[in-house]
């Protein structure tokens, strides 16, 4: 499980690391990325692409505010594994209308309506 | 021809069931995260130091994950499925994703890297931190269930499309998704807290 989350008050990342999903190997490669307002978008993009390319990752959790920065990547992401799930952060509650998965479902449901 | 129509209906109902499961699991993830974050905020307040007591300053330089997910299909023991969207996975078997606790093995020549994460923040931690840990563990388990629902959703939708195409090629009229389906989706949105 990989996590990309906000650092503004550390809560999302700290929480999931408390649950035991965090991993940092001897080469300092981690399975989580802490995002703050100074983090460049390309760093988030590179982390997302690196996590999705790994064959030992099944689920990627990303806070919705970080997901909004790379929405175009999430909308184009079609693989089943790893699954990308959007989670809330402290200051940004979960909005299902922004969730790429829910948008895809609604788009499919709108095909072929009367 | 009636058989094709029934197969299409079955595939569509399986897809809608997966959508419902996905929304339910995501609602559980959201609720567990909210509860966990609230308890974490309480722990930070009680531990003082203006929030520095519970922050990335306490992270160790090396850590090993003790909670992982296992992906398998209905034939137990098939192992983890590779990254793929090919037709191999559109054969109707249910996929299960389960979050399990897996304490990493410690070899003799390695520095000890596995520690219960709650111990990063001291020996005597407030009970709110332990409650927060349980909340996020629940969030991880619900995320695994949401992941399974998402994978099954994609596979069932692909199966529905193939059945619909097969039916239309053989002269069976496959009606478009009706307004009842839209009603179902819109009214299940209320599950989000």
TrEMBL record, chain A:
The record's annotation in InterPro entries points to: ATPase_V1-cplx_f_g_su (IPR008218), ATPase_V1-cplx_fsu_euk (IPR005772), ATPase_V1_fsu_sf (IPR036906)
- GO CC terms: proton-transporting V-type ATPase, V1 domain
- Keyword match 4Fe-4S: no
Which Pfam families does the record cross-reference, listed alphabetically?
A: ATP-synt_F (PF01990)
Q: Which domain of life is it from?
A: Eukaryota
A single GO molecular function term of this UniProt record: proton-transporting ATPase activity, rotational mechanism
The UniProt keywords, alphabetically, are: Hydrogen ion transport, Ion transport, Transport
Q: Does the keyword Cell wall biogenesis/degradation apply?
A: no
Give the family, as the similarity comment puts it.
Belongs to the V-ATPase F subunit family.
Identification of the protein by name: V-type proton ATPase subunit F
Q: What is the lineage of its organism?
A: Eukaryota, Cryptophyceae, Pyrenomonadales, Geminigeraceae, Guillardia
UniProtKB/TrEMBL annotation, chain B:
Q: Name one Pfam family in it.
A: Vma22_CCDC115
GO MF annotation list? unfolded protein binding
Task: Please list the GO biological process terms of this entry.
Answer: vacuolar proton-transporting V-type ATPase complex assembly
Task: Please give the superkingdom of this protein's source.
Answer: Eukaryota
InterPro entries xref list: Vma22/CCDC115
Show the PANTHER family listed in the entry: COILED-COIL DOMAIN-CONTAINING PROTEIN 115
Output this protein's name. Vacuolar ATPase assembly protein VMA22
Q: Which organism is it from?
A: Guillardia theta (strain CCMP2712)
């Amino acid at each position: 499980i990989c996590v990309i989350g906000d650092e503004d008050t550390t809560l999302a990342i700290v929480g999931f690391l408390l649950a035991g999903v965090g991993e940092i190997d001897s080469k300092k490669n981690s399975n989580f990325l802490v995002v703050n307002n100074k983090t460049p978008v390309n760093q988030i993009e590179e982390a997302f692409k690196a996590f999705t390319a790994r064959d030992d990752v099944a689920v990627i959790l990303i806070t919705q505010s970080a997901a909004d920065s790379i929405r175009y990547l999430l909308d184009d992401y079609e693989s089943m594994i790893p699954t990308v799930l959007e989670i809330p952060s402290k200051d940004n509650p979960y909005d299902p209308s922004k969730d790429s998965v829910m948008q895809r479902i609604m788009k499919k449901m709108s095909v072929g309506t009367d | 021809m009636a058989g094709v129509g029934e197969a299409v209906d079955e595939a569509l109902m399986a897809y809608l069931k997966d959508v419902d499961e996905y929304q339910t699991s995501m609602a559980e993830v959201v609720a567990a995260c909210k509860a966990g974050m609230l308890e974490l905020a309480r722990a930070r307040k009680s531990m003082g130091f203006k929030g520095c007591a519970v922050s990335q300053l306490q992270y160790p330089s090396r850590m090993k994950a003790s909670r992982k997910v296992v992906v398998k299909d209905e034939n137990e023991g098939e192992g983890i499925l590779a990254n793929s969207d090919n037709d191999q996975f559109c054969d109707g078997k249910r996929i299960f994703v389960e979050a399990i606790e897996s304490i990493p093995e410690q070899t003799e020549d390695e520095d000890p890297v596995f520690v219960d994460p709650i111990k990063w923040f001291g020996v005597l931690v407030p009970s709110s931190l332990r409650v927060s840990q349980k909340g996020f563990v629940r969030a991880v388990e619900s995320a695994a269930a949401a992941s399974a629902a998402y994978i099954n959703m994609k596979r069932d939708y692909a199966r529905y499309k193939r059945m619909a195409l097969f039916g239309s090629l053989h002269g069976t009229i496959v009606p478009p998704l009706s307004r009842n389906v839209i009603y179902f989706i819109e009214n299940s949105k209320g599950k989000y807290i």
